[in-house]
Amino acid sequence: MKEIVLINITGQDRPGLTSSLTNILAQYEVAILDIGQAVIHDYLSLGILVEIPSVHSSSSILKDLLFKAHELGIQVRFSAIDENSYTGWVSEYGQERRIITLLGRKLTATQLSKVTAAIAAHQLNIDVITRLSGRVFLDAPDLLPTACVQLTVSGTPDNPGQLRGMLLEISNETGIDISFHVDDIYRHARRLVVFDMDSTLIQGEVINVLAENAGVGDQVAQITASTMNGEMDFKESFTRRVSLLKGLDVRVLTEVAHNLVLAEGAERVIRTLKKLGYKIGVISGGFDFFGEYLQNKLGLDYVFANVLELENGKITGNINGDIIDGPRKAEILKTIATVENISLQQTIAVGDGANDLPMISIAGLGIAFHAKPIVKKNADQSISTVGLDGLLYLMGISEREIQQK
Questions:
Q1: How far apart are CA 174 and CA 191, in angstroms?
Q2: Helices (H), 15-73
Q3: 356 is catalytic
Q4: Catalytic one among 34, 177, 184, 198?
């Protein structure tokens, strides 16, 4: 009969503590079956599952550990594990796991309790909880205005759609973004990120700004809002809006481009992704003039946008080539993935409007960013409470890793 013991160590952490304990285990030729450790505010919680060789007495080993724990000023507890229980635990390895990420300006106990209650109600078990955001200074919380924790849960919910609905309701009630997706190999193998441009990578809608300069601001803004909410066909509305810009001087385009305001966190997320080797692109139903400006400013790899027809230094009110609408955005994403020799599961798409849903839905990770209600409802993941750099946390990248980059 194999003797299996779970050793739990808690107390003030310090360098060399784990070495002191494992050195005792080494003297008895103990096999390590599992090990895990967490440190919160310099307080250690260490678990070691061991198999004790039959040639050695477990009582001698445990006695030595108790003496060492007393010497180090820590607590140690032992639990005997029967072989059948251990075998059952081993057989569960490889079962489906999911990642649930809580992302907001601040994390509260109310938010966490509601999410964990929903997890428990669907018979899922929390295996790991990891803080991805940085440590917060109490007297300067704005230095890191984002809080993020990641929960790794195991088990298969009977009704994933119902759980997703519960999490969306909690998100709306408590003001925190909650991401929920399967933990698979593709999560660690993303290679391409594409953004919508207007109201995603930049603040506001460029076509509305151009319309203000052309004296047709109210008309265009109304059509734009209806389109982004999915109330009007994109191609039809886009044609109508562009026609209203007829006669606008090209110099206005340059002025508007120089005054573009990036979304909160845009530069940070792109800078980090570039250093990590990601390909980054814009797939926009806006205009190429502004997409190319951002490409030069931010070092983007791809830009696809509508080409404004210009004659004699004026906008003609027409578009050259096909209009980039929702279905076309999805096709472009597929094309870029083919060129980069990656699968769609290795792509990320971020957008805010109804015309972004086709590319969001086919990407490996689709994100609705400060999106219209119809988009948030239909996208698997959303960011509504923080800046665009919240994407890094949803990708599982910690603040420590971001700062190292």
A1: 33
A2: 17-27, 58-72
A3: no
A4: 198
Q: Pairing mode, if any, of strands 31-40 and 97-104?
A: unpaired
| Residue 158 appears among annotated catalytic residues | no
Residue whose C-alpha is closest to residue 385's, from 368, 403, 405: 368
Instruction: State how far the Cα of 220 lies from the Cα of 340, in Å rounded to an integer.
Output: 37
Q: Which of 177, 196, 288, 389 is catalytic?
A: 196
DSSP secondary structure letters along 271-328: HHHHHTT-EEEEEEEEEHHHHHHHHHHHT-SEEEEEEEEEETTEEEEEEES----HHH
Q: Which tokens in the block code for residue 7?
A: 């050793």
Question: Could you tell me the sign of the dihedral formed by the alpha carbons of 258, 263, 269, 270, in that order?
Answer: negative
Number of alpha carbons in the 13 Å side-chain half-sphere of residue 387: 16
CA atoms within 13 A on the CB side of 314: 10
The tokens for 278 are: 């990601």
List the domains of the chain with CATH numbers: 3-91 (3.30.70.260), 97-183 (3.30.70.260), 192-404 (3.40.50.1000)
Q: In what order do the strands lie in the sheet with 125-131?
A: 125-131, 147-154, 97-104, 177-182
Q: Which residues of 133-166 are buried (b: 16+ CB within 10 A; e: fewer)?
A: bbebeeeeeeeeebbbbbbebbbebeeeeebbeb
Q: Which of 57-71, 143-157, 323-337 has the highest mean pLDDT?
A: 323-337
Strands in 31-40's sheet, in edge-to-edge order, are 31-40, 43-52, 3-12, 75-81
The counts of H helices and E strands in the chain are: 16, 15
3-class DSSP string for 233-256: CHHHHHHHHHHCCCCCEHHHHHHH
Cβ 32 vs Cβ 3: under 8 Å:
no
Token look-up 């906008």 returns 315
pLDDT in tens, 297-313: 999 999 999 999 999 99
β-pairing, 177-182 vs 125-131, is: unpaired
pTM: 0.87
Report the C-alpha gap between 152 and 101 in whole angstroms. Answer: 9
> What would the pLDDT profile of 136-169 be if each residue is shown by its tens digit?
777 766 666 789 999 999 988 888 889 988 998 9
Among 94-98, 254-258, 286-290, the range scoring the smallest mean pLDDT is: 94-98
Listed in sequence order, the DSSP H helices in 33-151 are 58-72, 83-91, 109-121
